[in-house]
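User: Okay, second chain of the day. Same drill as before: sequence in, structure tokens out.
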Amino acid sequence: MAPPHEKKSTQKSLTPAEKQARSQQRKEKNFCMNQKLDNALSEVWKLAEALHKDLGTNSVKYWYERLLQQSSKQRQSRQTSRWNAFLSKETRARNETLPPGAPRPKVHDFAPQICNLWKAMSKQEQVAATEEELVQIAGVKEMKKTASHSVALNAFHDARALLASVQSQMESLHNRTGLEMLLLAVRADAQNVSCPQIMRLGSNATVSVVSKSKLITKKLHEAVAPCSVSKMFYTNFDMHITEKYGIVVVNWPLPQFVAPGSIDSRLELQTLYNAWLSGSTHFRCLSPSETETWMQQRFSTQVAAALATSPPVDQGTPDNSSSGTPADAPALLPDTSSTMPASSSTTSVPATSQGTSDLHATLTAMPQTGIFMVSGAPLVTQKPRKQRSDKGKKRGPKTKGPTQTEITPSASD
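Assistant: Same drill. Structure tokens below.
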């Protein structure tokens, strides 16, 4: 006779028509069940509206969640056993003998020892040792029964327990399959007291964007010390950081100078993190002479940009005699034709063999934004200014309002 585990199943195989019929039955059953559940939740919502209308306190959503949480509360509580009371009493007594600040062992750490002590006691000794503890536990239960119910607090404990279970399952799945996972849990409104949680699994996973931003901000604080800076600026870095603190970024490894949160490529994120972590990319404090050169060069660049965007003027010879300005008057703007770089130099990268070794020469040769790539060229990331709507349009004289007509004196007067 064959063993039970080797017996062939006598279950009849279903035909395709029978499988299709059973599938249809399951779909109809699920549809009916979901419909009844929706109707039941609608009734609960109506009850919540009635409570809100009758009591006039809290919102309908509060009463709705209160009713849903009330259904999960235990209706009947079982009697506390003397063993549980003795275990709680002995654990608390042993923890009280520990010095302040020492780690407190849990109940399961003392359970084997206390179990041997409990078995060695007689029935009368067990009753005498747990009588007072049972009275205290009963008082705690009664207090919990009459205590006010907090919807937000129960939602917090529910979310914490569920997220702990989800994290355990994610860890098990990662160990089996090697998948790298990221879970974000944030609250939906201000009434929810749950803290945001971030779970990231994967030994070789990319460091989170938050840690990259914190690393760059930490490096910036170290560079500007003893001064303080509120945050890291990626847009108009030269205006907020270089102009105020004389700090530039050297060896930025990416083609664009943007915040880590704006980078979509995982490879670029890891490259940026490794560059800052190894010190290849770093902040550098300019010397007083370099700062002065940087300021002059930045001013020249701004003047060149202003002249390039100004409307064309009449190329004819101005009539200095009709104006109030003498012909030999000094010019208001300096002649920057020999010192100012051409407009094409703002985007071109000149060849250099020294890279970033001669930063002072780079400062004096190029327009500045405070960001230097690995090649030593500045990275232009300034936010473009909004173009005027009347650019290129001829503007006439300002229209004057109606004036009062002068009264001409008559000949008789």
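Residues 49 and 55 are 10 Å apart (CA to CA).

User: Thanks, on to the next one.
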